[in-house]
Amino acid sequence: MRKMFQGYYRPSETELQKLWGNCIFAQDANVLLNLYRYTSETRKKLIEILKKIGSRLWVPHQAALEYQRNRLDVISKQRQAYTEIKQLLDDTQNKLQSSLRTYTRHPLIDAKKIMAPINAAFEEQAKEIEKVRQHHPDLVERDEVLETLTKLLDGKIGPSYTEDELKQIYKEGEDRYAKSIPPGFMDAKSKAGDQKFGDLVLWRQVLDKAAADKKPVIIVTDDSKEDWWWKHEGKIIGPKPELVEEMSSKAGVRFYMYRSDQFMEFAQKYLKQTIDRSAIEEIRSVRRSDEEERRKTGEFLFHRLRKVQFEKRNLELAAKLKDTQIKLESINEALNTPDALSHPEILDTLKSKKEKLEQVRRMLLVRRDELERRRYSVFNEEWGLPGDVLETARQSVLEELVRQAEEKEEVIQADQQIPPPRKPK
Fold first, then answer.
1. Which residues contact 40 (CB under 8 A, 6 or more apart)?
2. Domain total of the chain
């Protein structure tokens, strides 16, 4: 039974020792990009482990490509953090000052005296942040991480696919994603165009490498999505069983996955590496922070799309109300015509129609008011997301709107802002 369903069993201790002693260690793009997010000590330790792997270190071409494409964005985000923290301190200080002003007429509370040491603390922290910012390395001009990885990964990056091979994978991906076959199907709605197939391209490259070298593979990734990991009640059990079985059937070898912090922990045991516990905790903290940011982005996108749906329903109601109002005006005019006044049956028919239209109008107004109340609550949700995350989410929503518009042959101005909702009475 274990051989038949090996994807549902964790490797035994003996199997793990054999796996670590002979496998290919495939690094995902996020592992390389996260090097920019660690302190220099933690970064050096992780790079030491990668050097220790030697010839068994390997990076799929797709992962290396994504690293190169996103490297400068990650660097910019690290520098942007100083501005964001400074703005956060300023906003908090101003909020405190504003709140304390309400007590200026209190006989025993001296608001200025209370704020004096608080203002001093804020100013001290602002100076400290500026000092650190000035010492932040200019990685755009000279990227030491890139230089290190360029030497480390020389000859250890897999080949790319041809355009025809990629088209075939994209075609295969449409079928796999429709059936929720991992990996990558969770990117189908969040990424536009062929970008949604990035994980599938990477997986195919890993399969090809394993089949060519006839060696088992361990993928090291900080991706936490459920199209890579088998999860139960929020806890990761291991890689998706479908991935383990596909590796076995197509390459004839074993497959396993680790997140970066787990990889470092097990490197102590299987690669005989001495690692400071603080380095592992730092990597784990960065990973969890990224997971939380992605969770918030997902929630933001979901609620932003809800807003779009509210707007669509609001426009539909407005159109129906306008149409009903036009019909009512037409009936009111008809009621005062000589023809209607002189023919009671016509007058009764018109009055009956008017009464029904009035009922429809009242129903539409109730639905509009209810929609307005729900819409207002959604518009006023606060997420506390960084500006660049919000912008990425906004662009994803706009891309989804354009896609929907093309399908329905509607014209949507992608840069048109949704008007702010009126506050319900």
1. none
2. 2
